[in-house]
Amino acid sequence: MHRYTKLVAVYGCLLASASRSSAQQGPGSIPLSLSLQEVWQKSDVHSKVIQMQRLQVQRSKEAIRDAVTERLPELSVGGNFEQASNIPVYEHGLFNKPTQHEVIHTLYKIGADGYLNIYNGSKTNLKIAEEKVRDKIAIEQQNLTISDIRYRAASRYLELQRSLIFKQLMIKDIADQEKQLEEIRHFLKNGVVLKSDVLRVELKLSRQKLSLVTIENDISLSNQKLNILIGEPDEQVVIPTDPTNAETTHPETYEAYLAEAVSHSFQYHMSEQETELKKIELKTVKANVSLKIGLYGDFYYANPQIFLYPYNPHLYSLGIAGVRASFPISAIYLNRHKEKIAELELKKQEIEHADTEDQVRKQVKEAYLRYKEALIGVDVAKVNVEQAKENHRIVNNTYFNQTSLVTDLLDASVQLLQTHFDLATAEMAASLQYYQLQNVIGNL
């Protein structure tokens, strides 16, 4: 008896310690009630992965603007200042004293020149189109990242919600067990039950209290994981406000979900844009063998005038404008293998896109079936709860009528609690499978 009493006392101390640590959480001890939508809003703002992806989208926007600016003319200004020496003229040979020919010693020039591309095989347009496709890929990647983070947030949210339900069930079960223990002790005084019955119930109660400590720790860990995603302090207490069966609705048909995936799946559209990018890259390589035409101009001031004879030491200006055309003949044979490589890359990407389509169909089918399976699990769990309640009621009456053993009573209590746990787990699993399905089809 002393041994069991001591064991109960130890478990009581553990439970009291856990309760004190939960109560002393500092600033985060003020509960923060959040719905899943509010959690998603916070994760969209505070997730570092999403922040990095937003920067990538901004970069792609700037890359488009940079490609567009290549249509503008290239302009430059420059100048030079020079000091020249006389020109020695060796009239009588290199080893005799030369005659010094006087020149204009100070020379300077300042001017501007420009070039405007008119046609270069549409490389500029292809570059702009390429950057626009890369921007679409970055946007789809950002949407995929947001969807994945939301799914993770939903998982943490449901995990926390399940642990809180477990805590409520365990507290209620402990209260019921303590009340039942008092009744059994009363029967023991009257000599109706054995001392071993009391000890077994006390041992079960102590184990339940230890399980409550474990659940409290699970809540704390789930809370921290969720807080990291939504940008709250680690010790902030979050209280989920959504109902436990919010997403256990009747599913649509597989074909409807598959059609949505084709329209909205981020992975599918990213693969589609990657294929378009390879097509543009092939066109760019082919453009290496093309005529290049452009306008150019040059205007400058210079001194002295040595452009035309006779020269003179006076400032002059000159402007030149024209059309420049060229064709890279060597590109005809140098570009052949580059073009073949680009064609092979395009074929490879087309196969990858087809494979991505297959993977999306597979993911939709799996998520769809798992969701239906989870809904069936919820229905089964509800039936099990009702059966366990009835079984517990019958065994409880027969025990106190001395027609069943204490082990039957304890088993019935454990089964009842376990069925409640199973129902909470099934509802959370069904909700999580729903969000997984929405994540796959691109609606999260």
UniProtKB/TrEMBL annotation:
Gene3D superfamilies assigned to the protein according to its UniProt record, in alphabetical order: Outer membrane efflux proteins (OEP)
Keywords assigned by UniProt, alphabetized: Cell outer membrane, Coiled coil, Membrane, Signal, Transmembrane, Transmembrane beta strand
Q: Which superkingdom heads the taxonomic lineage of this protein's source? A: Bacteria
Primary residence = membrane
| Coiled-coil features, chain-numbered ranges | 334-366
Q: Where in the cell is the protein located?
A: Cell outer membrane
InterPro entries per the record? TolC-like
Q: Which organism is it from?
A: Mucilaginibacter aquariorum
Against SUPFAM superfamilies, the record matches this protein to: Outer membrane efflux proteins (OEP)
The protein's name is TolC family protein
The signal peptide here is 1-23
